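Subject: two folds for Thursday's group meeting

Dear M.,

Sorry for the delay on this. The cluster queue was jammed most of the week, so I only got both jobs back this morning. I'm pasting them in the order they finished. Each block is the input sequence followed by the predicted structure tokens. Could you check whether the formatting survives your parser before we put anything on slides? The first protein is the one we discussed after the seminar.
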Amino acid sequence: MIEQLDEEERAEALDRLGEWDYDEARDAISRRFVFADFSTAFAFMTRVALIAEKADHHPEWSNVWNRVDILLTTHDAGGLSARDVAMAEAIDALIDAD
């Protein structure tokens, strides 16, 4: 079973994930990514999709032209879990690599 992060674990994760916002109502993290154009945004989504599929952990997301909004929470855990933090870190690594 996947465990929800406790308050201390959540605070530590949020400190490490400085660009991500905490959604208290959903016990989730979210981030908006802005790119030069639609093609670049879609390429980013494709790379995230490959990571998500491999991890068997899929984000809630939306795309409008050059923007990609991603929300991560673990429904099976009832909120934020280590899986969400790991996914956010992997997504951040894609941005840092560019």
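Second protein, same layout:
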Amino acid sequence: MANAVNTIGVLTSGGDAPGMNAAIRGVVRTALSLGMKVKGIQKGYHGLLNEEIIDMDAHSVSNTIDRGGTILYTARCMRFYDEEGQKQGAEICKKHGIEGLVVIGGDGSFQGAQKLAGLGINTIALPGTIDLDIACTDYTIGFDTAVNTAMQAIDKIRDTSTSHERCSIIEVMGRNAGHIALWCGIANGAEDILIPSKYDHDEERIIQEIIANKKRGKKHHIIVNAEGVGHSTEMAQRLEKATGVETRATILGHMQRGGSPTCKDRVYASVMGAMAAELLAAGKSNRVIAQRGGEFVDLDINEALAMSKDVDEYMYKVSGLLCR
């Protein structure tokens, strides 16, 4: 039986995430096994508009599953938010014989995939972001590696914070989401976890906690601060002035995006990539692959983009009980 799609493309868009290479590998090798040709689009939608398109074979993805970042590179593309750019992208796909496209990225990347689907290019989207902020899925490619990287860094900071009897504010990534902060706050035994959707900006409460902990002999005070709250350096200065306790801010930044992916990110991303190729071979389009309730499923992109997501309420409640 002939494939509904004979040639597919694959791109990574937006912020890079550990495990993207595993997903690309899953797409390429599964597509080849199904008799399809694969073209790699470099630098996301920006590269698509510039026709930075290469042929890919099994060797193209050899020895990549353990590598961080993305072998196809990535970029943000403002032109693709415009209808003119979207139409140009669809025409370039057709010019290169690309009938189906796998897009690996976040919500913004999904919106581009949605537009291309409406212009006749079969699209499948994979959730690739360290932020865990895509509402339709319990898992996003890169989160597990990023949160473990941050956790290990905070463990090290706590060691030196204890040695100097300091307060330490560690700012983790996540844009306006607080998932990395919440997970690290629990895993690292932080005294405070500041998350955009939950933080009440009551610094006086934090000040009194630091003073009380110091009086009862505690040698450190760890505050995990989400990127969406931010202003860690200024906060450290205010807390030190109010408490008399030496306070340091550390912004972990883009180190959380890099590094060799964990086993979970390698396996889950591989499965998602393989599933994307199979869906395109079956003629499916405008779908997002998600991991929900322990199963891999595919959903309509329109439905996925309409969903909203916040941190798990029970996890947040537990963090308040444990992190003292």
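Two things I noticed about the second structure. The longest strand covers residues 7-12. The chain has a mean pLDDT of 96.

Cheers,
T.
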